[in-house]
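Open question from group meeting: does this chain pack into something compact, or does most of it stay loose? Before anyone orders reagents, we agreed to write out a predicted structure and look at it together. Recording both the input and the output here so the notebook holds the full record.
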Amino acid sequence: MKHFELVRNQAYLSFNDEDVIIIDKIENLPENSVYQSEYVLVLICTAGKIQIEYDGNTITIHQGEIFLGVPGSMLSDYMISPSFDCKLLAIKPTEATVSRALHTQIINSTLYIKSHPVAQLSASDTEAIFNYYNLICNQIKQSQHRYKNGEVRALLNAFLLKVVGIMDCENNTAESDTTLRGEQLVEKFVWMVNEDCGRNRLVEYYAEKLHITPKYLSTLVRATLGHTPTDIIKVVTIKEIERQLRYTSDSIKQISAAMNFPNTSFFGKYFKHNTGITPNSYRKKYCK
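Structure tokens returned:
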């Protein structure tokens, strides 16, 4: 249990060196701590409820609801009801588990899902989700055979497509006529922004790296994601600043310099303009 070693659980399944982790029943949850996920997290609440801090926002997941967390997200400060129980799947988005098409779909929906991480399951959705869940568990438990890895990967992809579809059903982003080449460029752009953690905030910077014009990059991103490149850069930048304010002891000046702002005054104005609160006020609010 390299990644979930504090969750002691007899109903624990691991596949492909913890590329996939399934916890069928939560027992003996660890003390509250900060966890930055490298997994796609799917939590299906089967009883009670759980409240958790997700990327600085408090969310509550009730019985009959599903939570989808995207890689890179911060989770902390949970509270659970006495009757709480759930099914938890943690899926690392590697070539061994997630197809390129599904990886692109998750990226396309990331901004929407980050702000809408919880959805109510209908009766038909619940039946489909648990059919996939049981098939995945049963297949992982099977002894190794020639086609096992491929079968597990296919089931995981079908399961995640169903989950993303449930989460994204209210996202009315227009259908895109973007070519495969365009989708690959957008995927690479989003990956680069997340890799930089918002330290580079100019659309021109990424366009140059991708060997296209800023205008063309904006067209591709709008068509594929329904947002501007600046929107995406801003979301990643603010999340990274919030992470450093909450979980590091670095001074405002140090964080400003680390994030490549010209000075602390500009840094403060940028943060307040996008959050409605100053960096100092944010730190006092969340770091009591």
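Observations to bring back to the group:
Residues 148-167 form the longest helix (20 residues).
The mean pLDDT is 84.
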